[in-house]
């Protein structure tokens, strides 16, 4: 279930290619207008297709489908990208309907993805009153990466900076950051995987974003509200 | 099965539209004002009710009352700060006052919308439902709060009917909507009637806003669509006709629900707008309009 926006087009292509590889059959592909306010017809249609899980790609919307999912007690768990769920204010905005909603992030305030994560989140909260949103962690790391590249290059000449940026080996708040090379399939993308940046899966539980994956830093296990019927 | 689902889901949203549009049409009937800040007042009520619970940590009922109270205040502010100065102005020619009121309330609505977005972000906010849980109606899982919403809407509209038809104040309001000059000849102060009407309107819009916040949730983006839907319901029903607005609210509510279920949720509002254009062609005064 994705909102009809430019960013979900490649996402949905990825979902449709990867979900079957993970052993999941796609029974229905729903793209809805981002200005949808009433999700009742969409949830009813989905329920009729009897899926085990709703894989989401939502960002412009978030509060409304989440609250209606809870109020209507839609018995299907949600999983995937729910960008608004990354915001620390999501629990309050949904009056706690976020309970059981997972999403993907690079870091959360309470988990030491690296030794730098928690001190940064604490300092951020002390200064601004709320924990950082997802962009806070990456922006923080990026400033250091760029500053160090400039120092190493001794110049702000773009070509010299790029040469130094390619050599980046920096432990940030989101993991160990290195970039793929110029001729790689993912030119200059952040290296992902074990030992690099893995990202994490968290789930809203009792007002907190509890990390449930990867195991090394997990604080808890996936847990869904009572109205959600898990197939296994 | 699908028909029953449409019947149930459509009722709650229609009842909510009816409540929102009633106050809107009442003001037009009495003072000839089309209040384009309507959506903003509804959203202000819902966001206030949300903030009362989430920021001030008040309980659900106090929060809901707080929301309605804020709508009442904003409604009076709309009248005293925007509408009344234009109506009383000697520098604006009388025949241009309507367009000034339209523009003034539209801008006022945008100001409220931007203030909400500035202080509470554009993210949608939801009000905690007063009744939780779901009931099974012939195999359709229905949130209890939808039934509650529909009941409150019907009750409030019923009370409004009693107020207008059975009390002295209400009769004065009704008389003012029929013949303002006649009312002043009877020794009633039109300004006082206006204040009463804006008060009633504020309460109605506030209740509708808070209920909408519980039912679907609202954000500052909802301001435009809410004003537009009230506007089209009121025009469809006949400007100034309360019963026309009630019928139109159910026509629009069900037309939207049927479209969302049978065609696609993305086209939800389109058939109602086409109907509006069609009605304008064959019956410009609306379903039950007098003028």
Can you walk me through this structure?
Chain B: Keywords: Amino-acid transport, Cell membrane, Membrane, Transmembrane, Transmembrane helix, Transport. Chain B: This is Amino acid/amide ABC transporter membrane protein 1 (HAAT family). Chain B: It is found in: Cell membrane. The complex is a heterodimer of chains A (232) and B (291). Helix content of chain A is 33%, strand content 15%. By secondary structure, chain A is an alpha/beta fold. Chain A folds into two domains: 2-106 and 199-217, Rossmann fold (3-Layer(aba) Sandwich); 117-177, no CATH class. Chain B has 291 residues and is mainly alpha-helical. In chain B, a hairpin with a 2-residue loop joins strand 1 and strand 2. In chain B, helix 1 runs parallel beside helix 5 and helix 2 packs across helix 8. Chain A binds chain B through residues 4, 32-33, 35-42, 44, 61-64, 67-68, 71-73, 84, 87, 89, 92-95, 97, and chain B through 5, 9, 13, 50, 53-55, 121, 123-129, 132-134, 141, 143, 145, 216-217, 219, 221-222, 225, 257, 260-261, 265-266, 268.
The biggest beta sheet of chain A reads: 3 strands, antiparallel
Mean pLDDT of chain A: 93
Helix content of chain A: 25-40%
What is the number of E strands of chain B? 2
Structural class of chain A: alpha/beta
CATH architecture of chain B: Orthogonal Bundle
CATH C-level class of the largest domain in chain A: Alpha Beta
| Proportion in helices of chain B | over 70%
Order of helices and strands of chain A: EHEHEHEHEHHHEEEE
N-to-C order of helices and strands of chain B? HHHHEEHHHHHHH
CATH superfamily of the largest domain in chain A: Response regulator
Global morphology of chain A? globular
Query: What is the number of independent domains of chain B?
Result: 1
Placed side by side, the strands forming the largest sheet of chain A appear as 5-8-9
């Amino acid at each position: 279930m994705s909102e009809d926006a430019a960013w979900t087009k490649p996402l949905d292509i990825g979902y449709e290619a990867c979900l079957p590889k993970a052993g999941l059959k796609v029974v229905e592909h729903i793209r809805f207008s981002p200005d949808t306010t009433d999700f009742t017809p969409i949830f009813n249609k989905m329920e009729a297709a009897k899926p085990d899980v709703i894989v989401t790609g939502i960002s412009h919307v978030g509060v409304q489908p989440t609250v209606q999912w809870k109020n209507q007690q839609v018995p299907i768990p949600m999983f995937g990208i729910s960008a608004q769920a990354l915001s620390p204010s999501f629990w309050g905005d949904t009056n706690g309907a976020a309970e059981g909603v997972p999403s993907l992030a690079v870091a959360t305030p309470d988990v030491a993805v690296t030794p730098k994560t928690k001190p940064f989140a604490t300092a951020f909260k002390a200064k601004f009153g709320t924990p950082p949103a997802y962009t806070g962690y990456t922006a923080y790391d990026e400033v250091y990466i760029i500053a160090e590249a400039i120092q190493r290059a001794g110049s702000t000449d773009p070509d010299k900076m790029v040469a130094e940026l390619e050599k980046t080996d920096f432990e940030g708040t989101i993991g160990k950051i290195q970039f793929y090379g110029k001729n790689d399939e993912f030119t200059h993308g952040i290296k992902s995987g074990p030992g690099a940046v893995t990202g994490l899966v968290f789930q809203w539980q009792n007002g907190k974003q509890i990390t449930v994956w990867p195991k090394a830093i997990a604080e808890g296990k996936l847990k869904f509200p009572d109205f959600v019927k898990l197939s296994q | 099965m699908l028909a029953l689902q449409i019947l149930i889901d459509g009722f709650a949203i229609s009842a909510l539209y009816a409540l929102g549009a009633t106050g809107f049409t009442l003001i037009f009937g009495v003072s000839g004002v089309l209040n384009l800040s309507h959506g903003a007042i509804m959203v202000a009520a819902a966001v206030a009710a949300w903030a009362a619970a989430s920021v001030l940590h008040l309980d659900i009922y106090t929060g809901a009352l707080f929301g309605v109270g804020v709508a009442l205040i904003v409604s009076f502010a709309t009248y005293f700060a925007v509408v009344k100065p234009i109506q009383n102005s000697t520098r604006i020619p009388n025949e241009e006052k309507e367009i000034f009121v339209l523009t003034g309330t539209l801008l006022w609505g945008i100001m409220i919308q931007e203030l909400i977005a500035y202080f509470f972000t554009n993210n949608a906010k939801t009000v905690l439902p007063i009744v939780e849980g779901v009931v099974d109606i012939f195999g359709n899982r229905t949130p209890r709060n939808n039934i509650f919403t529909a009941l409150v809407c019907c009750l409030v509209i019923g009370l409004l009917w009693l107020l207008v038809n059975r009390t002295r104040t209400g009769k004065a309001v009704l008389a003012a909507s029929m013949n303002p000059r006649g009312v002043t000849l009877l020794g009633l102060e039109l300004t006082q009637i206006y204040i009463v009407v804006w008060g009633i309107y504020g309460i109605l819009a506030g209740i509708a806003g808070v209920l909408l916040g519980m039912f679907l949730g609202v954000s500052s983006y909802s301001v435009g669509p809410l004003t537009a839907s009230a506007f089209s319901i009121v025009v469809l029903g006949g400007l100034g006709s309360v019963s026309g607005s009630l019928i139109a609210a159910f026509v629009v509510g069900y037309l939207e629900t049927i479209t969302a279920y049978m065609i696609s949720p993305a086209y939800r509002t389109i058939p109602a707008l086409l109907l509006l254009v069609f009605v304008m062609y064959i019956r410009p005064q609306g379903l039950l309009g007098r003028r």
